[in-house]
Amino acid sequence: MSYQSKSIRDIINGLNDRIFILPEFQRDFVWKDDQITALFVSLISGYPIGTFIFWKVKRDYINSQNLNVYEFLRDFSEYEDKKYSPQIHLPIQSLHDDYFVVLDGQQRITSLLIGLQGSSSRIAANKRKKLVRNYVSRQLYLDLSFPLEGKMGDNGLTQDGHFLFLSEQDEKLPSYFLVAKILDFHDDAEVYGYCQKNGLDATALSNLASLFHAINDKEGNGSITYFEIEKDDVNRAIDIFVKVNSSGTPLSKASLLLTRITEKWPKAKKEINSLLVNLNRLGDGFAFSSEFMIRACLALTDSPVSLKIGAFKDGNILPIRDNWHKINQAFMTLGCFLAKYGFSRDNITSYNALMPIAYYLYRGGESSSANEKEFRRYLAVALITRAFGGTSDTTITEFRRVLQNIDCVKTPFNLSLFVGTPIGQGRNFGIDDSYIEACFHEKKGPQTLMVLSLIYPEIDVTKMQFHQDHLHPFTAFDDKKIKKLGLDAETVKRWQKERNYLPNLQLLPSPDNESKNDRSLIDYLSSLQSSGQPFPKFWPVGISYELKDFDVFQQQRKALMFEAIKKVLTA
């Protein structure tokens, strides 16, 4: 190992020539925009940004070993299939004999490339993550009006307002300088000339000069200092990578495990990322992660499901590689089922609860209409009871044991298969009156939607989007309106909370919900009656439907719904 340094400009040039590359076992880019800006603030403030580790390797070795290598991202996007580094096709054919594989420093180098030559696209506020048009592309700017006085933060980087990401639509002050343009300057005279031409003051000149030197200095705090490894041995490189990233660096356990998998299965990263992209874009979108998928691969191939790096041996890597087609197929079938019945990233509160369904499908079980009904019942109980909580590894293993003891090809999936299975903390899987009662204390959200979809079996959520509608309209409980009823403050506060509980909710097709709008319950019932439509399901009769009698309405509708939930969810 030798200790050397390069300027950031040298690194950027090397990235453009594709001689700085990423190995298969590197993790994906995960930094947020504020981490990127903090890195640049550290640079112009004169703080070091840490040491890097490069593996210097010959082109012929990369080609002969068929090493999967990747380019660095310069235009990052959070959108599912645009956030992964592009793979370099083999064999590499270029004039360069030597390549530098980055073992430590990928996040920082990618951030430098994004700031100096690329862009960062993040999801716009309150927009659907599934639509690529909702991701706004921004470039890095330096506000030249800020004096250089950043403070060192807990993460070793400084945080202040020097740098910010702006889109084409954002308003740009005269003091905003596009960071990418710093590469156009070649000496101090050009920096000074730019400031003079644009009427910029001494503070702006100081900022711009600091950025220029941080990018171009080959020694000192602005330079990239690195250890260079020159042995053509991929296993040695992997060992170094694991040791560096398992001691204090915030690298996820899943990333380290993926590193181990690539030793025996070079295509692992590409295949797993491809499956995640395809899964997460189904329906309204999901949030399946690498960590979940690695644990799932272990679960499906009957390996221990605990993510312990030291225990990750050939015996539980090779079955994943050899059965990948079946694993992929099982999860795509699972994803299609979830999308079909309206599940998404917004209402799946535990992805580990999906493991038994995936395992059943992996073992040859069908996704028939009868099984799908039971998938939904099982999933409702699993999510309501939070069965896959703090001891999820143990719970996954126990549920897998149940399915190992049946022939999944011939045995229908059924909620009753799992009733009584240990789920930790002295509990067994199943639902009783206390869990059903808890459903009535959940605010409108994923849990209430799931329960409503089960007790409204006549509603086909696969053909139309349904909304959770407030029977007594939400706005009827606003302070100004409810004040007219002369209620005490405690009752007002309680009603404003309970308006979002199950007894005041129903499922309505989205067009009906939009037309219903904020009509009072009395007016809504009158419109149903005049058009010959039935009253909502689980409807208490012989009582007042005026808002002043909200307590009675809630209690009686709750009783009707309670029995329906109990009938559906008890095996």
Rg result? 29 Å
Number of domains: 3
**Envelope shape:** flat
Order the strands across the largest sheet as they lie in space: 1-11-3-6-2-4
What percentage of residues falls in helices of 4 or more residues? 40-55%
Beta strands, count? 15
**Average predicted confidence as pLDDT:** 86
Structural class: alpha+beta
Unreliable spans are 150-159, 247-251
Classify the beta-strand content into a percent band: 5-15%
Q: Enumerate how many helices there are, as a single number.
A: 22
Distance between the termini: 64 Å
For the biggest sheet, the summary is: 6 strands, mixed
Task: Please describe what this structure looks like.
The chain has helices at residues 8-16, 33-44, 59-64, 106-117, 188-197, 202-216, 234-245, 253-264, 268-280, 290-300, 314-322, 324-340, 355-362, 369-384, 392-404, 433-439, 446-455, 479-482, 489-498, 510-516, 521-530, 550-569, and strands at residues 2-6, 20-23, 51-58, 69-70, 75-77, 98-104, 119-123, 135-143, 163-166, 176-178, 224-229, 422-424, 427-428, 466-470, 505-509. It is α+β, with helices and mostly antiparallel strands and 571 residues long. The chain has three domains: 2-229, no CATH class; 252-430, no CATH class; 463-569, no CATH class. The strands form four sheets. Strands 1-11-3-6-2-4 form a six-stranded mixed beta sheet. Strands 5, 7, 8, 9 and 10 form a five-stranded mixed beta sheet that branches. A two-stranded antiparallel sheet has the order 12-13.
